[in-house]
Write a structure and sequence with these properties.
Layout (H helix, E strand, L loop, with lengths): L12 E4 L7 H4 L6 E5 L1 H4 L2 H10 L3 E5 L7 H13 L5 E5 L1 H12 L7 H5 L11 E5 L11 E5 L6 E5 L7 E4 L9 H20 L5 H27 L5 H21 L3 H13 L3 H20 L1 H10 L3 H11 L14 H10 L1 H4 L7 H12 L1
Parallel strand pairs: 1-8, 2-3, 2-4, 4-5, 5-8
Antiparallel strand pairs: 6-7
């Protein structure tokens, strides 16, 4: 049984294929006015103008430049959507864009401020339909009921989660992930890899979620090095590798939204918020430490994952991080707000799903290794 109970949450419709982002126009043709939230990277692609021609005037375009989303970003997007009398919201971008769009769609009809829902209030009624089109392969946000949002006043970074947040439509168009920098490919891909591992060994895992997580893991390890090398050389990767990486990210989201994660994500949210470090980079540097800590609790899963990687899981992960030039971003820095950080890690729902019960001493030890 998953940590969310006996329910299983999946996107209603998923389309895959090169060029399918343009099919969004036909899907919303009779659905009234809506808002398309996008970032700078999509605006530079030829698909942007093609989609504009097909979808206007019923589709309004909202450029999002806010980085990792805050509660204030959600408030502003809800207000703008109401001004345009939107009946649906679509996010075309990386995890931040998908999360802010998902939260705004889900809380569109909320009676309270978004901060209340981040603190645990339940949305009073369903919001607007949400359509998700990822342009990075990493967050898996397109296939989850979670929206990770930062409180800009306290820097508390937590998920707003509700079953009604699940996407009504997901479009996986691998053409959209081309042109990313090597660092973007590495950070997002290693986020997806971490999600697949943590979901696979989560205390909330079920046979279904383990199947999704293992499939995600295999797709990611088979494609991420090639896609990264292509970004490094300025060449597009083989189409099948882009497809595989995007599918792996999607499947990792399906896995963890139904099973939970682990200590890496329990640490990643406060570390990312307190130090303004990209989420995928935080996950990457925390993953080896978590594998060392959890190895004995992972049992047969450690062996199976190692077999897939063609060697010891921990050593292979370390080698992957080295090949992708992942910096030791926290090494030698002071630990800020130490007690508060430890409290946040221990109270995290992700930490609660870790295969080994995490103590305060465990968190202190991980921080010492990370910063020492």
């Amino acid at each position: 049984m998953s940590f969310l109970g006996s329910a299983l949450f999946l996107p209603k419709i998923t389309w895959t294929g090169h060029g399918r982002v343009l099919d969004l126009a036909s899907y919303v043709k009779n659905k009234g006015p809506g808002l398309i939230v996008h970032g700078a990277s999509f605006r530079k692609k030829p698909q942007f103008k093609d989609l504009q021609r097909r979808i206007e005037p019923q589709g309004f375009f909202y450029p999002y430049e806010g980085g990792e989303p805050t509660l204030e970003n959600v408030r502003h997007l809800i207000a703008y959507a109401k001004k345009k009398k939107a009946l649906w919201l679509a996010g075309i971008g990386g995890g931040s864009i998908l999360d802010v769009t998902k939260a705004a769609a889900g809380l569109y009809r909320g009676e309270q401020d978004p901060e209340a829902y981040q603190k645990g209030a339940v949305p009073e009624r369903p919001g607007l339909p949400f359509y998700a089109i990822p342009t990075t392969a990493g967050s898996g946000s397109e296939s989850t009921i979670n929206a990770v949002i930062t409180n800009e006043k306290t820097l508390d970074k937590r998920s707003i989660r509700h079953e009604s947040f699940m996407a009504d439509l997901v479009i996986l168009d691998a053409n959209l992930i081309e042109g990313r920098s090597p660092a973007q490919v590495a950070y997002s891909g290693l986020d997806a890899l971490t999600q697949s591992i943590e979901s696979y060994v989560s205390r909330g895992a079920t046979p279904f979620t383990r199947g999704m997580a293992f499939a995600a893991f295999n797709r990611i390890i088979e494609s991420l090095p090639s896609v990264y090398l292509g970004a490094l050389e300025g060449k597009p990767p083989a189409p099948e590798k882009s497809d595989m990486l995007l599918e792996g990210s999607y499947l990792s989201g399906v896995g963890f939204t139904n099973s939970g994660l682990g200590i890496v994500h329990g640490m990643a949210h406060p570390l990312g918020a307190f130090y303004s470090v990209p989420h995928g980079l935080v996950c990457a540097v925390c993953l080896p430490l978590a594998l060392e800590l959890n190895r004995s609790a992972m049992g047969e899963a450690y062996m199976l994952l190692s077999q897939s990687m063609g060697g010891d899981l921990l050593e292979r992960v370390k080698g992957l991080l080295l090949a992708m030039k992942i910096p030791a971003v926290f090494k030698g820095r002071p630990i800020v707000r130490r007690d508060e950080m430890i409290k946040l890690v221990l109270s995290s729902g992700s930490t609660a799903m870790n295969p080994r019960v995490i103590t305060q001493e465990d968190v202190e030890g991980l921080l010492e290794k990370l910063f020492g």
